[in-house]
Here is the input.
Amino acid sequence: MNPFLKSVEVTFLRHGIAAILDPDGAAVPVRLLPMQADEIADFGTMRIQDAGGMFEILDSAFAGHGKGAVLDIAGERRKVQHSRVRDPRRFKVQLNTVPV
Here is the structure.
């Protein structure tokens, strides 16, 4: 087995949060690493919260899924708006999600 892949898998196992991918269909348990919280923009005295969220998932866990896939994270449903691979070894996929 590739030692780099094993290291990434252990990181997800130990530090990832539990989620369900495609809760209305296959209901596959996965682990996610949060990358970026919701963004908050200030306009004078008004604050606007962008309910986006970035997560990483193992490429092998996201195989066969894409834009529109739904994640259930601790009871909160989020839809994948965009996915991309920035990992040079292609072990992880970044997911840009929004609440459903």
